[in-house]
Design brief:
Elements (H helix, E strand, L loop, with lengths): L1 H27 L9 E11 L17 E2 L2 E6 L14 H9 L3 H9 L4 E7 L6 E11 L4 E9 L4 E9 L1 E2 L2 E2 L2 E6 L2 E2 L22 E2 L24 E11 L5 H7 L2 H12 L3 H12 L2 E2 L15 E6 L2 E3 L12 E6 L15
Antiparallel strand pairs: 1-5, 1-13, 2-6, 3-4, 3-6, 6-7, 7-11, 8-9, 10-13, 11-12, 14-16, 15-17
Length: about 350
């Protein structure tokens, strides 16, 4: 009898395991849109526009290479900041051409019902640099879009449209995305410093590549290579996740827009220490590399030599102060003296 039960159990075991797996799959199938979590993310934009990577027509002066303020937002599925191979909105056109954000801000304000949070990242004042900020997403607003103008340029920019921070039902912990130059399709200029001749009729938003536009005068035209170097990267890092047990979502629904934004700012204070450290790092003093050591002050006997460095960027706000700019080192030796020297003559 015991043996019969054992045989039946062995026969039924695969089916029992299949049921368990199915139950587990159902348990894991909850998507971010079903979640009541409020998630706090950090965004960091790193640019790599250098003369070494992009030597052709690299703009040295008036103005030098730089990047505009970055405008971005978290939103639901129904919003698109821009779409590839489609016409840019008037607001995106204006921003891509001149980096003027007034029209863009007005357009985003009209989309308040479907935009959850907005962020503005400070300008990057040189071709290669970085900037960062923070934003919130939730179960119904888990997509992110942003735009940054390449300065100088006719109507070129980098950005993302509707990037999903929810993958397979889980919030992404840390992800980095390569960015490439995009053409808004509103200006005929081919070089970084071209006059802004309007394209009539306007073209669609397209990706600029090493072989497109196919014109020798184009600043990004490098027919000898297959792909352009990555001009910028953006990374999203999940900092904290507030769950429904905190009643955050219920409270958010009851608040007016201004009150909601105030609550978002209060929630951001949970990471105040880390954010302060980030601000300090951004605003830290920067110094150059050390120079070569100077010649020794004494040809015979004990002397000194020095090396120096200069300030590249002064600290501001809570940034770390500049370190010392000069180092001194003993040099020389009594063994270097000869009998003709008077220094050690008895």
């Amino acid at each position: 009898m015991m043996e019969t039960k054992l045989v039946l159990l062995l026969l039924l075991l695969p089916f029992l395991l299949m049921d368990c797996v199915a139950d587990g799959a159902d348990f894991q199938s909850e998507s971010c849109s079903d979640s009541e979590a409020l998630v706090f993310y950090r965004i960091r934009l790193v640019t790599n526009w250098s003369k070494k990577l992009f030597p052709k027509q690299y703009p040295e002066f008036r103005p030098p290479p730089q990047w505009s303020v970055t405008y971005g937002q978290s939103h639901n599925d129904s919003f698109h900041l821009f779409r590839m191979n489609e016409y840019a909105s008037p607001a995106v056109q204006a921003f891509a051409e001149s980096a003027h954000a007034h029209t863009l801000q007005e357009e985003l304000a009209r989309q308040n019902a479907i935009i959850y949070d907005e962020f503005h990242l400070p300008k990057i004042t040189k071709g290669a640099g970085s900037t960062q900020g923070t934003f919130f997403v939730d179960g119904r607003h888990h997509k992110i879009s942003f735009i940054t103008k390449i300065v100088p340029s006719p109507d070129w920019f980098v950005g993302l449209d509707s990037y999903n921070l929810c993958s397979d039902g889980n919030w992404l912990d840390d992800v980095t995305v390569d960015l490439h130059p995009l053409d808004a399709g509103t200006s005929n200029g081919l070089t970084f410093t071209s006059p802004k001749w309007p394209t009539n009729p306007s073209g669609v938003i397209e990706k600029i590549t090493a072989r497109y536009p196919k014109h020798f005068a184009s600043s990004f035209f490098y027919p000898e290579i297959k792909h352009l170097p990555v001009i910028a990267q953006v990374s999203f890092t999940k900092v904290h996740e507030y769950h429904g047990s905190n009643n955050v979502q219920k409270k958010m629904k009851k608040l007016k827009n201004k009150q909601r934004k105030r609550l978002l700012k209060k929630l951001a204070l949970f990471n105040r220490k880390q954010e302060n450290e980030t601000v300090k790092q951004i605003n830290d003093c920067e110094v150059s590399k050390w120079s070569e050591w100077s010649a020794c002050s004494q040809l015979c006997g004990l002397g000194k030599r020095t090396r120096t460095r200069v300030i590249v960027k002064h600290s501001k706000d809570q940034g770390q102060e500049c370190p010392h700019l000069m180092e001194t080192q003993w040099c020389g030796s009594a063994r270097e003296c000869t009998d003709n020297d008077s220094y050690f003559r008895w």
